[in-house]
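Interim report, section 4.2 (structural modelling).
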Amino acid sequence: MGAKDVHIVRTTTWSAGPGCHGGCGVLAHIRDGKLVKLEGDPDHPWNQGRLCARALAMTQYVEHPERLRRPVKRVGKRGEGRWEEISWDEAYDLVEKKMKAIREEFGPESVIFSMGTGRDIGPWICMLAYAFGSPNVMFALSGNACYTPRFAALDTVQGEYSVFDAGQWLPDRYEDPRFEVPACMIVWGYNIPATCPDNLFGHWIIDLMKRGTKIISIDPRLSWFASRAKYWLRLRPGTDAALAMGFLNVIVNEDLYDHGFLEKWTNAAHLIRGDTGKLLRESDLGEGGSGENFVAWDDAANQAAVWDAEQVEYKAPDVKPALSGDCEVTLADGDMVVCHTVWDAFRAEVGKYSLDKVEKITGVQAGDIAQATRFYASSKPASIHWGVPIDMTPAVTPLCQAIASLWALTGNLDVPGGNVFSRFAFDAVAYALPGAEGVIKLKNKEQDKPRIGADRYGPFNKFIWRCQTDLALEQIFTGEPYPIKGLWIQTCNLLGGIGLDPKRWREALKKLDLVVAVDLFMNSTTQYADIVLPAASFLEKDGVRSWWVPLQSINKAITVDECRPDVEINFELARRFDPDFKWKTIRELFDDIIKPSGLTFEELQQKGWAFPPEGHPSCPYRRHEKGLLRADKKPGFQTPTGRFELYSTLREDWGLEPLPHHEEPPLTPVSRPDLAKDYPLILSTGRRSPAFFHAEHRMIPWLREIDPDPVVEIHPDTAAEHGIGNGEWVWVENWMGRVKFKAKVTLVVPTWMVMAAHGWWFPEKPGAEPTLYGVWESNVNQLIPMNAQGKDGLGAPIKHLLCKIYKVGRKEE
Amino acid sequence: MARKPEYGLLIDYEYCTGCYTCQVACAQEYQWPAGIGGIQVLEVVQRLPNDRAYLAYLPFPTELCILCAPRTKKGLEPACVKHCMAGCMKYGRLEDLSKELGNKPRMVLWSPR
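Predicted structure of the assembly:
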């Protein structure tokens, strides 16, 4: 039993296992083919030897007695919980036969491929769907409200996504001379101790704080950051955009913005027609003018000057574009039209948000907003990190526009220590993502046509290559414009985790002809499947990861029974569905994905990880100045104007408000005072637990011990008012239903809000109907409606609903 | 059994985020069943004047903490210290750590059983 019997496999966390968005280097200690220990890899630049509770619990995960180990097929009715083990060959044959039959009769688009949070699954589920011929890949959250909206919004205004800089792009990290520690960081709705979402290592922010970064925390809860912040702005949930507009108001009116960036890199000087309220285009000025070129007023020549968006410059030399002031421009038909600049329109919009007004909307004192804004704007560099609460509101895009304008106008975009463009390492992209095209794609545009929601929502035709989830669910019921007959669900717990209004999702599952689920454990969703396939954890597979830098390999360390990696399962079926399937082996597929790096998969495995060199578009900084962002290598951004867009051309094209602004969400005390009479408390959901990734890990003893019960946080005064003691069970109720939670009486929430944990089910309870692992007991999603997405199909009201609370047993109906 | 303590754990609770890594790292190292282990994270919500509060976490070594003698003998850090996500735990000689205690506020020095 000595150490010499143990061999160590160096690999990368991602997906099933810790459940997070991955990136940590780990050393898997293996003895006799079994995992005996997992440790952080001290040489890995991402986590530098550290590791989270969920990864450290992997020995309890991989060999868990309840782990699904063989394919099973349903032998009873759906939900009855009666299964028969079958071989992989039989499982593949069965799935192939049934899915081909649906394809034959109803067309490939009548099968939806459903995934949960974006991990090492997106590429493979797309690969399978596309080989089958269906464009309907579904991220199953209402309003696609996790990350996709933020991606799409930033692609809209700045052509790329960006994140806070912790030197993660540089092998020597904080020690690299190119990196700078931000003097200030705004942490906007993000709870660091827990779960590392969004392809970031949360504790990087702690590293920065130790190096001097001061925090502004924007959060209705007293988070860990709020406790340690220089400024804590406790806003009412759902009013983030008003707060961001307040910040912009201070920055604009107190002249705290970066004039150089504004003039050189934004579309501030472009003209807006006074008559239509739309951007003046070259095509307005005369025959042959392009509708994709824009117009500014040249103060030097005292005439209109055309901005050539393709060349990313003015057509005339030495233009001195006016940033402000009305001007008269002659149109093609000889009419004169008065125009104003984007900058004037932006300032007018921002001007609507006086701090007194913002205080009324958000509940944050005007003086605190002013001080925090001045601190952010005067700190160089400064960065902003935002969490998923940004996505979880229907007017997510205008909110993102406001926040992006903050980092742009303060000159913090793609500077060291600021908000830095997050390109995929070496531009190695596996599949179609917002702003990127991967090697895995549909055969042709024709196949993409029936994608659900693509005909209705602009961003779904420009950046987002999934179906719009709310419409997809409705289509299962209506069968319009075409029937949905099959659902492939892969590592996605519709009923216990990601689905809002989960009973409606159950009705949908019952309606379908075929449901196939792939997962690591049975759960309430798999109970409604016809076939369930056992998936592998990250330790049981090979893989590649380019989110973002460095490029990493995942290296198989163990095999658990008949569990198979998602990529293997989908590869086998994809081959069966598509006679022209592009790759012969998975190795070939990996090689193809990472080809831009110049490495083969085998070479990458040997290296473990690889950083793109200086001068590569996926290596910072100031890439817009160096011509590293655009395909044509011209300086600028990948937007319709080539500039950071304070006023969004695409939003105008989509018939949506082009400027950032605040919209009151649909189900708050302000928008629905009628409902608030019966349900006076704000219900917020989804605060993270370090022990769980969403609905996962409830069956892992070391983790469950940390967070044993579904908890609702209640302020001591509110609890006293309702006669609720700490640890007592309470009902949280609104017009959609009620769910049971254990009261955690704590000062971290304000008196007017309760915070209910999400993703709760009880693997220890029976799986068959009616119990379904207790999924209806404490799943807070039962109180959140579907179909409340924003005007662009994105966002959902997950952080700001209404409820009442009362003790269980006191007032049972 | 009186033994003069020589080694200890220095905790910077300003930076402890309550990630519970130390608890699970210890459980993994010694294969403790759930609910038992060499270190326990405490959450302390401190009420402050003017409706303010301070959220703090503190890793508390239990009666089972042996300061990872099997690891430290090999020159390794204790499992909790090695994996601490916030890097807020330090193992060393009490004499050295007690000097470090004066370097910044919000620290505790543990000398476990």
